[in-house]
Amino acid sequence: MGLDSADSKNGGVDVRCADNLRVLIAAMVERARSGHPGGAMGGADFVNVLYSEFLNWDPDDPAWANRDRFYLDPGHLSAMLYAELALCGLFTTDELASFRQWGSAAPGHPEMSAARMIDNSSGPLGQGHAMGLGAAIAERFLAARFGEWTAHKIYAYISDGGVQEEISQGVGRLAGHLGLSNFIMFFDSNDVQLSTVTGEVTNEDTGAKYKAWGWSVSVIDGNDAAQIRAALSAALNEKERPTLIIGKTVMGKGARTKDGAPFEGKVSTHGQPLSDAGASEEETIKHLGGDPGNPFAIFPDVAERYKAVLAGKRARARAKKAEQAAWEKANPELAKKFAACVNREVPDIDWASIKHKPGIPSRAASGNVLAEFSAKIGNMIVSSADLCNSDKTDGFLKSSKVLRKGDFSGGFLQAGVAELTMAAVMNGIASHGGAYAVCGTFFAFSDYMKPAVRMAALMELPVKYVWSHDNFRVGEDGPTHQPIEHETQIRLLERMANPHGRRAMLVLRPADAAETTEAWRLALENTTAPTALLLSRQALADIPAKSSASTRIEDAKGARYGAYAVVDCDNPGLILIAGGAEVITCVEAAAYIRKERGIEVRVISAISEGLFKEQPQEYKDNLIPFGVPALAFTAGLPVNFKDMVGPLGKVIGLERFGASAPFKVLEEKFGYTSEALVKRVYVYLEEYGALRERLSGLGLGKDCLN
Ligand SMILES: Cc1ncc(C[n+]2csc(CCOP(=O)(O)OP(=O)(O)O)c2C)c(N)n1
């Protein structure tokens, strides 16, 4: 097969490489009987030029920290990425042939893998390029600390879907505002989307929009290697602005019908095998210079070309690594710090030295911890969606400053009112590596972040969320700002296993300042999953020390078991379980119940149900012995703690939206005073007694319950 069969304006090896990619893409989707060939075939020219001529990486060390990154936004174009990575030697053609099958290295949408040089998991449109922005921020952050020898480029690939997603507004604004010239994005503008042509949903001038945000914008034929090359070269020379290359591409480029007629630009090729879309796989492959009998072959001239490409990559990586070695020799102290950043080493913090005034809100305690971090942790980026003085992430500004265009020596990212963008950017920072990623807002607005939180959990990224205003006691702002069902929602991720079989998320709701310090300690130690801190707006009385032999600071270390006793006794007649602000109410109620009824009460602070579940059975049984009445008290939905109280236990929670009033009034109205709790405990004890009797009537008495 010669070059003439390919319908590109430019002949030569570029077309052969892109056509080979198109053949592989068509074959993968056809073999799997599932996938998205059209967009992928149109983007082949770009990824070929990018990977072969621009992207710097080390074929012998795909996880190299200083490699350029590629953030794919439309994960449905996975076949394009895998095919290109096969040319680069990171996938075998057998692996391509197992596209979308159980256990395949080539799943339906890309899943982050350092070994395969897949920089992000993608699928939910919009998040991929936002992660790219995060990586671009991380890159500049590290260069500001360790020098320009660390510099590399962050490439992102976006499609119509990503541009239409609202998150693109946040990314466009922030990247332009921060002047991130290291961020280069290709817009695969093929005018076709999943169910319609783009003309059905938009007539915006996308280029003008990005220009208004301060981007450098060019429009090219996205199937023309020479134009792609020129646009990427210009992007490398850009020093002030991020770059958007709008590549006008052809959906299903090269597709042919049974009769050999062009079948391009068709919506039908977006998400099904070409043969189902109305084209012919065989004629398409023939037209593109492939062998329909052996469609997973890499063309000999393409293999030859990539052999040379890889040799070039190796040589450049060697030179860059030699530069790094020389720098390390000349800067041994900094070199240690750089290694610690890249290897995600947990910093040494003198936790005991973090002091809190008595009875402060847990958000304020978190602010104190962040102030300490700003002095002690050099590689942390903290962000807030315009609430830093309220969620108290501004504690980090004590010894740090805001990231600004041209000055990334600080560590605070003012994200603006853009929670989803912020959360996805954090994923990008964490996936890039080298810096801790922390971000805050009100817990009620975590709803705007959930899609990115889920991706953090899936990608096992240790992003930390500071979610303040964690319950109805927000007060006067009313039900829009009062999280109720949110804790249950976010704790669902504590119940899931991530791809390595570990808990997918850690959610911590500390009861007072001492526990907030412990929560931050646990958050830093959690390097394989995201962590959420649910923090109070209102002041929290400090939980008293458990006994005269202990201190509250020492007691609070029990937080690492997920749940532990803050009021204890040898043989409890009642167990009260709570988290956050409700713990002190239980402590007060316990004292009253003991005095009034002579019942010995154990009060448990349960900072994380997920963490508690992982403790040895013996610890769990000792803390909450079976056969003892157990009542849990939560400001969230009463499904919280359901597993902890056991079959005869009860959970008291809220099952309504909040209301606008001073929080003390709300506590009265909703039954969240210690007096009200005592009454509800007595009702429960009666219910419990009646239940026990009914069970013993069935012959399921003491033996069964103890
Ligand atoms: C957040 C989100 N919403 C919806 C989808 C489903 N979806 C996948 S691709 C797509 C349209 C994509 O069109 P475009 O980005 O132009 O890709 P192309 O048709 O060029 O392949 C949609 C709606 C998704 N993956 N993510």
Q: Could you characterize what this model shows?
A:
Mean pLDDT is 96; it is low at 1-10. By secondary structure, the protein is an alpha/beta fold. The chain folds into 3 domains: 3-314, Thiamin diphosphate (ThDP)-binding fold, Pyr/PP domains (Rossmann fold, 3-Layer(aba) Sandwich); 351-534, Rossmann fold (3-Layer(aba) Sandwich), CATH 3.40.50; 561-705, Rossmann fold, CATH 3.40.50. A 6-stranded parallel β-sheet has the order 7-6-8-9-11-10, with helices on both faces. The protein is built from 27 helices and 16 strands. The protein is 42% helix and 11% strand. 53% of the residues are buried. The structure holds thiamine diphosphate. Thiamine diphosphate binds at residues 36, 38-39, 74, 76, 123-125, 159-161, 190, 192-194, 270.
Write the layout of secondary structure elements.
Elements: H1 13-32, H2 37-54, E1 69-72, H3 78-87, H4 93-97, H5 127-146, E2 154-159, H6 160-164, H7 167-177, E3 183-189, H8 206-212, E4 216-221, H9 225-237, E5 243-248, H10 274-277, H11 281-287, H12 300-330, H13 332-342, H14 362-376, E6 380-384, H15 388-391, E7 412-414, H16 419-432, E8 436-442, H17 450-459, E9 464-468, H18 486-491, E10 506-508, H19 513-525, E11 531-534, H20 552-555, E12 563-567, E13 574-578, H21 582-597, E14 601-606, H22 609-613, H23 617-623, E15 630-633, H24 642-645, E16 650-652, H25 663-670, H26 674-697, H27 702-705
Parallel strand pairs: 1-2, 2-3, 3-5, 4-5, 6-7, 6-8, 8-9, 9-11, 10-11, 13-14, 13-15, 15-16
Antiparallel strand pairs: 12-14
The protein binds thiamine diphosphate.
